[in-house]
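Ops channel
N.P.: pipeline sanity check, posting one input/output pair.
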């Protein structure tokens, strides 16, 4: 899953990496959670601002739902952009 949006002249991409449990038979089970991968680029011309950031929930755990991971990724990107624009 991926979400792309514009914020204050920057393009933000939040991609989700699913984390799957491995069973005793070495087969993948359903996703047990998600990690948000956040990338920020300038809009025109499109250039990356730093490296992508991988986000997990508190206590170094994966997000329980895709919606939680997307929301956290969007919020983190907005805070990073606000810090950069204000500085």
């Amino acid at each position: 899953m991926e979400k792309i949006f514009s914020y204050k002249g920057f393009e933000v991409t939040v991609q989700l990496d699913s984390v799957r449990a491995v069973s005793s038979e070495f087969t993948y089970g359903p996703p047990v959670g998600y990690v948000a991968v956040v990338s920020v680029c300038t809009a025109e011309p499109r250039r990356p601002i730093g490296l992508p950031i991988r986000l997990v929930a508190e206590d170094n755990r994966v997000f329980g739902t895709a919606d939680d991971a997307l929301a956290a990724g969007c919020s983190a990107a907005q805070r990073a952009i606000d810090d950069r624009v204000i500085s």
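N.P.: looks fine end to end. Helices lie at 66-86.
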